[in-house]
């Protein structure tokens, strides 16, 4: 494509960009037809993209070209049409990569700016091919830039125009892959360490409704990711489960501190508060964990693959310890409220650990758990989880595969079935904890979040926050 540069130079900035997109489409189609493996766009073509679409000067003597706001909008519409009309997904993915894969140069800022606007427009007008390409981009790109893209969408749909969050909510049905990656990026964007890093209630309510409607949504990237090869440590986690667990556990302390106003949803009769939302989210996350044993067994990975990393859990317990210390310093203001919030956070941590271990999402020894929880204050349920009998699979014959962007993955091989272990004597029943109840549905005070079936016979102390 190097010979077309001279034909693009005399054109106006929009016409040149449009013409280059047309030639890029043809170039990639021919590249795939040639059978070259792997198909890779050459550096000369990438330089043309940077010069005529992102306006990075080809040399110091060439003046920088800039688009007006109207021309940029027209370019975005042209891109939307280009991806929509191209029927071959492979061509779309290569074209998206040629445009928006970061190269580590000065054009990257322009790439990120145009990418945010393109994906935001794709959400608004329902351009599924662009959302699917963006989902792949999120899976392959450094998490810092993934978080930046998520921030653009949150700003556009949860802050700029009141009521526009309903438009963003449609990506659940339009592109579940993008929706899953968006949730993962959002949980990294908001770590609840400050008011600015606390998710807006509109966003929180949307995520809760997504997971309640389809609990498997947060597992889509995991289910569609090959279990061989390696994923960079800098990429997003393969599921948002770790981030969602962090939200639920820290929320009783952080939202109480920030005193977020209720969400009205445009109606004085429909008021949603943070407490019930996080209670509903916590229950939904536990239900997602309970889907994992069947999925992991089908893949032959039960007991071999960990979706919750000990490093992230250690960081979470460290943050929780700090928040609890801060809460203790303010006990003179509201002693009962502080104690309730602290115990709720610890209860949720215990529940998450128990269910994650029972479902095979967390593979570790009880000694490891006691080590990372050693700085936390006493909590009855947490003490039971750390010392009492916990049902979880511990395959001593095969080392766990840390399936997250934190380790290289080896090809999965089929292992012979292990002999059945002898049945152990039945333990005597433990005394019932005062707060212990069986989770089968949401609290009656949270009727706006319909109950979902849960694992029968497993009891967890579940205390909704008010």
Your description of this structure?
The chain has 466 residues and is mostly helical. Helices cover 55% and strands 2% of the residues. It has helices at residues 5-8, 13-33, 43-52, 69-85, 89-100, 108-125, 128-140, 143-160, 165-169, 171-174, 176-189, 201-213, 220-223, 241-258, 274-298, 310-328, 335-359, 366-372, 380-387, and strands at 229-230, 408-409, 437-438, 459-460. Strands 1-2 form a two-stranded antiparallel sheet. Strands 3-4 form a two-stranded antiparallel sheet. Helix 14 (241-258) runs parallel beside helix 16. The longest helix is centred in the middle third of the chain and has 25 residues, at 274-298.
Please describe the topology of this protein.
Layout: H1 5-8, H2 13-33, H3 43-52, H4 69-85, H5 89-100, H6 108-125, H7 128-140, H8 143-160, H9 165-169, H10 171-174, H11 176-189, H12 201-213, H13 220-223, E1 229-230, H14 241-258, H15 274-298, H16 310-328, H17 335-359, H18 366-372, H19 380-387, E2 408-409, E3 437-438, E4 459-460
Helix pairs in contact: 2-3, 2-4, 2-5, 4-6, 5-7, 6-7, 6-8, 7-11, 8-11, 12-15, 14-15, 14-16, 14-17, 15-17, 16-17, 17-19
């Amino acid at each position: 494509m190097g010979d077309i540069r001279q034909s693009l130079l005399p054109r106006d900035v929009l016409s040149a960009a449009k013409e280059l997109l047309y030639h890029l489409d043809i170039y990639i189609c021919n590249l795939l037809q040639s059978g070259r493996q792997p198909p890779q766009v050459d550096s000369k073509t990438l330089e043309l993209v940077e010069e005529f679409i992102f306006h990075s000067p080809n040399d110091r003597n060439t003046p920088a070209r800039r688009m007006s706001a109207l021309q940029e909008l027209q370019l975005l519409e042209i891109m939307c049409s280009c991806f929509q009309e191209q029927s071959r997904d492979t061509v779309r993915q290569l074209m998206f990569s040629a445009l928006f894969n970061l190269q580590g140069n000065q054009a990257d800022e322009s790439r990120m700016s145009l990418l945010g606007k393109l994906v935001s427009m794709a959400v608004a007008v329902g351009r599924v091919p662009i959302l699917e390409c963006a989902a792949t981009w999120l899976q392959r790109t450094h998490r810092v830039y993934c978080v930046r893209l998520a921030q653009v969408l949150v700003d556009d749909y949860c802050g700029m125009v009141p009521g526009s969050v309903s438009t963003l909510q449609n990506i659940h049905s339009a592109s579940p892959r993008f929706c899953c990656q968006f949730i993962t990026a959002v949980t990294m964007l908001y770590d609840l360490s400050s008011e600015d890093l606390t998710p807006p209630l509109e966003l929180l309510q949307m995520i809760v409704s997504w997971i309640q409607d389809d609990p498997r949504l947060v597992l889509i990237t995991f289910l569609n990711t090959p279990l061989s090869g390696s994923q960079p440590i800098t990429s997003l986690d393969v599921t948002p489960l770790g981030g969602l667990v962090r939200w639920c556990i820290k929320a009783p302390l952080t939202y109480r501190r920030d005193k977020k106003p209720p969400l009205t949803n445009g109606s004085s009769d429909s008021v949603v508060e943070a407490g019930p939302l996080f209670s509903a989210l916590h229950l939904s996350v536990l239900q997602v964990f309970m889907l994992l044993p069947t999925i992991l067994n089908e893949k032959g990975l039960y007991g071999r693959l960990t979706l919750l990393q000990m490093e992230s859990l250690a960081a979470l317990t460290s943050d929780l310890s700090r928040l609890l210390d801060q809460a203790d310093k303010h006990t003179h203001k509201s002693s009962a409220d502080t104690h309730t919030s602290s115990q709720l956070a610890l209860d949720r941590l215990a529940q998450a650990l128990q269910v994650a271990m029972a479902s095979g999402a967390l593979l570790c020894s009880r000694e490891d758990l006691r080590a990372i929880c050693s700085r936390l204050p006493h909590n009855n349920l947490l003490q039971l989880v750390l010392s009492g009998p916990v049902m979880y699979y511990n395959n001593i014959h095969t080392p766990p595969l840390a399936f997250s962007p934190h380790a290289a993955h080896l090809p999965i091989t089929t292992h012979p079935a292990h002999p059945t272990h002898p049945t152990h004597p039945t333990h005597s029943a433990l005394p019932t904890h005062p707060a212990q109840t069986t989770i089968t549905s949401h609290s009656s005070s949270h009727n706006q979040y319909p109950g979902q079936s849960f694992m029968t016979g497993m009891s967890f102390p579940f205390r909704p926050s008010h």
